[in-house]
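Work package 3, deliverable 3.1, input record:
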Amino acid sequence: MSQILKRYDLDKLAVATIASHTALQILRGAKKYGFRTIAIAKNEDIAQFYKQFFFIDEVWTGDFSNFRKTAERLVAENALLIPHGSYVEYVGWRQALEAPVPTLGCRELLRWEADQYKKMALLEEAGIPIPRVYRSPTEVDGPVILKLFGAKGGRGYFVAKGREELEARLKALGEEYIIQEYLFGVPAYYHYFASPVYSRIEVFGADIRYESNVDGRTFGWAEPTFVVVGNLPLVLRESLLPIIHKYGVQFAKAVERRVGCRLAGPYCLESIIKDDMSIVVFEFSGRIVAGTNIYMGYGSPYSVLYFDKPMDMGERIAHEIREAAKAGKLDQLFT
Amino acid sequence: MSQILKRYDLDKLAVATIASHTALQILRGAKKYGFRTIAIAKNEDIAQFYKQFFFIDEVWTGDFSNFRKTAERLVAENALLIPHGSYVEYVGWRQALEAPVPTLGCRELLRWEADQYKKMALLEEAGIPIPRVYRSPTEVDGPVILKLFGAKGGRGYFVAKGREELEARLKALGEEYIIQEYLFGVPAYYHYFASPVYSRIEVFGADIRYESNVDGRTFGWAEPTFVVVGNLPLVLRESLLPIIHKYGVQFAKAVERRVGCRLAGPYCLESIIKDDMSIVVFEFSGRIVAGTNIYMGYGSPYSVLYFDKPMDMGERIAHEIREAAKAGKLDQLFT
Amino acid sequence: MSQILKRYDLDKLAVATIASHTALQILRGAKKYGFRTIAIAKNEDIAQFYKQFFFIDEVWTGDFSNFRKTAERLVAENALLIPHGSYVEYVGWRQALEAPVPTLGCRELLRWEADQYKKMALLEEAGIPIPRVYRSPTEVDGPVILKLFGAKGGRGYFVAKGREELEARLKALGEEYIIQEYLFGVPAYYHYFASPVYSRIEVFGADIRYESNVDGRTFGWAEPTFVVVGNLPLVLRESLLPIIHKYGVQFAKAVERRVGCRLAGPYCLESIIKDDMSIVVFEFSGRIVAGTNIYMGYGSPYSVLYFDKPMDMGERIAHEIREAAKAGKLDQLFT
């Protein structure tokens, strides 16, 4: 990518992303920092929705099954691609890995994220506590949660109180899955920003996912399901922040060591905080998570730890790009 | 009203509302935009509370059982009335319909809101999915929620797992009610703003109601109740925004078609998001909802989709009034 | 303290606090208002975490078992100490009571807070509804919650459905405790600010505690526990604000009457709102609570009721100190 980046006209950089997930936040931030902005929609209806916003210069309709052409068009436009969960879901991790357009962050990580077992191994490598993973249902001796492979926003996940219930439900399942120990505690998602410009890992925010139907009022009358439909703001007990920061740093180091590339831009660790205040991380995301949308516009509580004024994650990304461009460091951000 | 509005001195406009619900947000926004502000309290104690705030120029104590006199006094003061749920509750929808003072939004809608069946019919007319409504308890074949007529903040609502439980509880009930299918999923309330000035429907924010005791920790030891005592901030999965925006637009069109007047200012659709990500709307409000209070002062995450800086709903209303006054369009806002 | 304060160089004031709880908010606010800032960490690891932030001028490592020396060093630095829950926990209330350094607020209140029965008595004195307190397990005739003495963030608390369950669990307990009636409703924490400068009590914000595991998804598979790990933003039904403000005022008066000193700076009432909208206060804190962290940086919704722009609690404290210093009123803030 550094060859492509070298040919970019730094005065005419565009920021592009797929029209979903965190696109509004990303593109608004980019526009605020003076970049041209491009949204790529998966169909005309969605394109229409995004066209109404003043901060989006162009809305394209893209063919995600063959993303190469779109990638080339982005390069022709001096565009930097900000990947997010919907991008990976739409184009698939293999295309995302190879798309010939400068893409924020460590792309190689996508290979690890595609396999729940490799994900867990990377967290372990980082020295971060993870839930017990059962290789076989016969090992199960307590409550478990079953998760399907791939970022599907929780669709198809289920809990079982024990082995018997699990085995009964597994019979109907045709997809790849992982069985994790079910942890009692509260969910908490930590948003980090890895900054090559400032050489630091920032704890930027936190959220709770809002999942249907488990976060509704079911009175035990319906089977719990875990489909993410929104996010809720959260601040953490301050005495937890040093360990949360430490896990973020350890994760970045483990990625460098094992995956072989440096994290840049937003990433996320997804945890349960148990009632002994220990943190167990059951998932990560190597890029921006939708939970950052909670502070769009007015900025995250933790952003002021690093900057004079509150900033949201879209602005944070744009800020980093602008500073990296000035300092000739764009190749440390984009792969 | 356009006769009254014509006689108003546009340089001395006042913004008035009832001292409750969202009055602080409305009047603070109005003051920020340079309007005189009037709060009308239902008694002296409440008046005292509102008098402490610098952005409220006058606090009146009003006789809500006979609102005409207050309305006339408001007109004498060049005042524009911003209605909200407590206003409708205090003066009653019949008085609100006829009060001789310019009132934000489509007043005729009050007639529809007074009847839960007409409300549901209007949503259906808009092509928005609604829960099944049971005309008689004998039709009930699953979990239901029973709601009383009128905006009572959820008081008296109850759930029943099935027909038998419902019938037992109905015996003690002396008020008008509606029986709705009980939906499994998570509650989500969408705040819209219908702007005659910009000719658009804005998705402005979202919240979750905080209801006592159902959102507390009852461990199944107490019967669930649904009294709204506060609101919690929410952002939605971005892929849901196009459909949420679409429902907002469809609702505005249905109001124009069936009720015969144009929506102007804030309104709200109140929904359950199911675990297949479909949205079912079980209520609406034709005016500002208390959920907008969550972003008072610092502004809503979605406000920056339409404006340079975050804005709260009070500021949004004041902005619209100022621009409409400049453009000679106040009669498109007030009826 | 007024002797010490008289010797302070008002142009070189420092604001100091213990590196935990709400230190980031407090010190960031102080720096924004031009004060020098000092964080005192309980060990080197924590000190390292706080050293990364630009708004903290000095990070010390303190010996909390013997706080006098640190207090004297603070005085030598012209420092004003902002106490919070972790400070009281680390140094103990007896040391906090006597530390020879100007400390924000009414220190004598610490003596009352150390004893759950005295706490309840003070609330009663203020005319604020409190839960029934059982002097003996044999009196118990319904659901109860058992709380340990001292601010432990909810550790060790438990609920019991009735007397029998309670008595069984009490056998294993070796600490001081209080048995309170278990209230059905929703938790709500009110943040107040007592301002000697403006001679008023401000309702500044509200939050909900995020407690592990009770706020997680346990499906009844685990015993509920109540360890605070974070906080969630909340706004209240506006019609509740006058009574919430009134309770805040009554509490301040009761402190003056019974404890003999005037509240200054942040304090908190901690309540359940029942489904008849009545408020029952089960706890208070005489100083800043961690729930104020939810609006760090972007400011609380209620702050704009008193000031032109949103403010967080750290900024609010710094603002008060600056104005008090100008007006020669620091001795009304610090004891």
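The domain at 133-181 of chain C is CATH 3.30.1490 (Dna Ligase; domain 1).
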